[in-house]
Amino acid sequence: MSSVTRNAHAKLNAFLRVLGRRPDGFHEIQTAILPIELHDVVTVEEHDVLVIEVTGERAEELREAGGESLVGRAAHAWASVAGVGAPRARILVDKRIPVAAGLGGGSADAAATILALDELFGTRFASEVLLEVAATVGSDVCALVSGGPVFADGRGDHVLPLHAPTSHWVVRPFPFAVRTPDAYGWWDERPSSGPDPGSLIAAIEVGNHDLAGSGLFDDLQPAVADRHAEVTRAVVAFAAAGALGAVMSGSGPTVVALARDPAHAAGIASAVPGSFVTTASPPAAPPRTIAEPSGVV
Known about the structure:
Layout: E1 3-21, E2 27-46, E3 51-55, H1 59-65, H2 68-82, E4 89-94, H3 105-120, H4 127-135, H5 139-146, E5 150-154, E6 158-161, E7 167-172, H6 180-189, H7 198-206, H8 209-215, E8 217-218, H9 221-227, H10 229-240, E9 245-248, E10 255-259, H11 262-271, E11 276-280
Parallel strand pairs: 1-8, 3-4
Antiparallel strand pairs: 1-2, 2-4, 2-5, 5-6, 7-10, 7-11, 9-10
Helix pairs in contact: 2-3, 2-4, 3-5, 4-5, 7-8, 9-10
């Protein structure tokens, strides 16, 4: 095998609860992360040295934000655990996910890089080892290397699978970025934590979209919206268009809205300029039965 190609799926956060700053400088959080259809494409080929090339409609955004560094860190983290010294691979990223948008694009690329290297070079790491590699790169990488919906806590590096049926969303990105450290720093100025997410997680797992929509929240949203009024305007516009609920995703500024079905999502998107429809689907492996809950709640 001389190359491996993987889709690097963006994510959205159905909720993000921030509990406080930790001694290590990270924040203690709880969140539900759902991978969505929107994706970059990462191809890894055998090569003499590590080379990273970025193409696609968002390539310049990624270069300006320094996002290639996450892919490089992922490659070096995998090589360190694999015991091969420097990674010997050419990594091609076809960039489609908006950068610094709260959609986890850089983390998705890093996760896809780890998985592609593992496949290409036959290391076949256990899932626990893959998570350890991911944790050295970034918190969201742990969720995205898992390949399906997850509940994450700690600094985001402890993940548990969620049984989340297919859900339909409308996504409103913006032409400006919000750096994750800035969003958390603004939260630190006026810290406030949302409710216990147990009932929201249960609604997600049983596919009660009406109940889930009414419970969406993001503790980072108020501080980001104070500085970027577009966030609040998008939430209001989605509500006026009949969304079941709308919330900023992650550190923002992207706003996502939950719909009942594809037709409902299409109607919402048509009413909110600049938005698009996507789907959050369960992983390819067969989902657990109702007798095998996630154990999160």
